Amino acid sequence: MTELSIKMWQHNACMDFSCVICGRLHQQSCAAVSVVDEELSEGDTTETVGDICPDCLAAGAEHVQERAHKHAEEWRTWANAIDALGEGLAGVDWPTVQEWEAFEDKVQADIRLE
Ligand SMILES: [Zn+2]
Fold first, then answer.
1. What is the predicted pLDDT for the residue at 46?
2. What integer pLDDT is reported at residue 2 of this predicted model?
3. Does residue 39 fall inside a structural domain?
4. Residue 41 Cα to ligand 1 middle (Å)
5. What's the pLDDT score for residue 72?
């Protein structure tokens, strides 16, 4: 089992991050709270698994398993939908890249005429 810890640290990317626990996007300033893989971290190199959102922090460690499980269920639902998509498309009439490029040329020509 991987040894994990939680680390608060300063980084230089102030942007939206997806929470590693619940999957929700959150605006993150330069102060991050991350899950760290201690086995893969060495010396000054910290191996982060992902960042934790304020909602998961507020929910507390006692709810991390249920929040992660809900996130995993969402991925399983998506994975099943993608599998069904692949199965549903098997045998469907499939255009070639050349047909698509010809269609793109036609669309572009039609747009220029308007
Ligand atoms: Zn979260």
1. 79
2. 78
3. yes
4. 23
5. 97
Task: Report in angstroms the alpha-carbon separations of 84 from 69, 88, 93, 108, 113.
Answer: 22, 6, 17, 34, 41
Residues of the domain holding 21: 1-78
Q: In the chain, which ranges are E strands?
A: 4-10, 15-18, 25-28, 31-37, 48-51
Q: How far apart are CA 70 and CA 68, in angstroms?
A: 5
**Closest of 10, 19, 13, 30 to residue 54, by C-alpha:** 19
For ligand 1, the distance from its centroid to the CA atom of residue 101, given in whole angstroms, is: 42
* Distance (Å) from CA 17 to ligand 1 centroid: 10
Amino acid sitting at position 45: T
Q: Indicate whether 19 belongs to any domain.
A: yes
- Which stretches of 4-113 are assigned E, i.e. beta strand? 4-10, 15-18, 25-28, 31-37, 48-51
- Asked whether residue 45 is assigned to any structural domain, the reply reads yes
- Ranges of residues in the chain with a pLDDT under 70 are 1
Distance 4 CA to ligand 1 centre (A): 17
